[in-house]
Amino acid sequence: MIDETHAAGRASWVTSANGHTMFPIQNLPLGVFSPDGGSARGGVAIGDRILDLGSALEAGLFSGAARDAAEAASGRTLNALLEAGPAARQALRRRVSDILDAKGADAAKIETIAGRLLHDADRCVIHLPARVGNFTDFFAGIHHAHTAGTISRPENPLMPNYKYVPVAYHSRASSVRVSGGLVRRPNGQRKPPEQDAPDFGPCRNLDYEMELGVWIGPGNEIGSPIPIAEASRHVAGFCLLNDWSARDIQAWESQPLGPFLAKSLSTFVSPWIVTTEALAPFRIAQPPRPAGDPAPLRHLNDAADQADGCFDIGLEVLLLTPKMRAAGAAPHVLSRSNASMLYWTVAQMVAHHTSNGCNLQPGDLFGSGTVSGTAPGSAGCLLEMTRGGRNPVSLPNGETRTYLLDGDEVVFRATCRRDGYASIGFGECRGTVTEALTLG
């Protein structure tokens, strides 16, 4: 799937796309935006600008399959394009790359109408890229699972099913929000070990979880599982996902059925869908399982998926406290990890999710589970980093954190790098904690 759109030497007549940017011409992520208070519409991020697909259609810049795809992507959500599948995305990507190419056949003509086609990203409102019908959160980060398990049950960190089943739970689609907003500290039931009975009040242990978000493209009919060999065709692209977590509420309510109100308070995603086509140069083999681990069961075992179903995506978490903000300081990097740390591939998640006949729909969203590594400074959440709040994190300005305080802003970033190819990024997933509501 690597083609001319990935060529490192390709440059754009949009000059901001040619320097240090998350969105060079080799990326072309898809999203939905409103320019200067206008209506929501589909667009493509390029440097610090956004290509308006509707305006490009009106200018007659698309034809054939690319036109059909651009029409599907030009509305208030991208669900129609996600449903159209890989061929439509590929046709759109190739034509958009040609439109923006500094050496494209139409470059001189297109530059003369650039004012109609492009919008300054920092003057636009960015929306959720798709209507999320269903949201499933996986638990595929084995190092997170092991560390979290060690904190709560040191004698048995991983449950017996973990290395056989891509563990997941159905989360709340209605509270998925786009990056940049406020997350309100939730109220809920809490029962610390020293209390005989629970009480109700603001969460004391609010946390983030660094996850990879997965946008589903074409779905499947109910009762018709997706075979593992075909699963990757049902994945349209990726984003960053912050699964805000109220740890004290979670510890009490998760017995025996698992997370509920501790997770449904809000989930933030980065606004741009980085397509599977853009990520083609950054596919790698799934790391071998440790000696003694069971092989995936038949419905999850595909040689091609094991050969290139993993993604080399560098992830980082940053924190900006109110004190740092007041001093004009930059956000502090708390941790760095990589998507290759996930125990299960995305195709395995799709295949297992549908193995009982469950139907996926275009625009469904998966969370990968917290992506943590084994090295110091690679934990994907504060629960791991502070060992359940026992070891506070020290910040450069002298502050410490066990969990998030009101006013703290959490920032996720991701970058893909490979020799011989242009680096691409995901943009940011930001969110700021605000105080809990006072309940009578």
Note the topology.
Layout: E1 30-35, E2 41-46, E3 49-52, H1 53-58, H2 64-73, H3 79-84, H4 86-100, H5 107-112, H6 114-117, E4 118-120, E5 124-127, E6 135-138, H7 142-152, E7 168-171, E8 176-178, E9 181-184, E10 187-190, E11 199-202, E12 206-207, E13 210-216, E14 235-243, E15 245-246, H8 247-253, H9 261-264, E16 267-269, E17 274-275, E18 283-284, H10 303-308, E19 310-311, E20 314-320, H11 322-326, E21 332-338, H12 346-354, E22 365-367, H13 382-385, E23 393-394, E24 400-401, E25 409-416, E26 424-434
Parallel strand pairs: 6-22, 8-16, 9-26
Antiparallel strand pairs: 1-2, 1-5, 2-3, 3-4, 6-7, 10-11, 12-15, 13-14, 13-22, 14-16, 14-17, 18-19, 20-21, 20-25, 23-24, 25-26
At CATH's second level, what is the architecture of the largest domain? Alpha-Beta Complex
The CATH class label of the largest domain is Alpha Beta
Q: List the uncertain runs.
A: none
What general outline do the C-alpha atoms trace?
globular
Structural category: alpha+beta
The CATH homologous superfamily of the largest domain is termed Fumarylacetoacetase-like, C-terminal domain
Largest sheet: 8 strands, mixed
Q: Compute the gyration radius: what is it?
A: 22 Å
CATH topology of the largest domain: Fumarylacetoacetate hydrolase, domain 2
Please report the total strand number as a whole number.
26
| Fraction of residues in β-strands | 25-35%
Could you provide a short overview of the structure?
With 440 residues, the chain is an alpha+beta fold.
Can you offer a commentary on this structure?
With 440 residues, this protein is an alpha+beta fold. The protein folds into two domains: 4-127, SH3 type barrels (Roll), CATH 2.30.30.230; 135-434, Fumarylacetoacetase-like, C-terminal domain (Fumarylacetoacetate hydrolase, domain 2, Alpha-Beta Complex), CATH 3.90.850.10. The protein has helices at 53-58, 64-73, 79-84, 86-100, 107-112, 114-117, 142-152, 247-253, 261-264, 303-308, 322-326, 346-354, 382-385; strands at residues 30-35, 41-46, 49-52, 118-120, 124-127, 135-138, 168-171, 176-178, 181-184, 187-190, 199-202, 206-207, 210-216, 235-243, 245-246, 267-269, 274-275, 283-284, 310-311, 314-320, 332-338, 365-367, 393-394, 400-401, 409-416, 424-434. Strands 6, 7, 8, 13, 14, 16, 17 and 22 form an eight-stranded mixed β-sheet that branches. Helix 2 packs across helix 4 (86-100). The N and C termini lie far apart (58 Å). The model has no long low-confidence stretch (mean pLDDT 97).
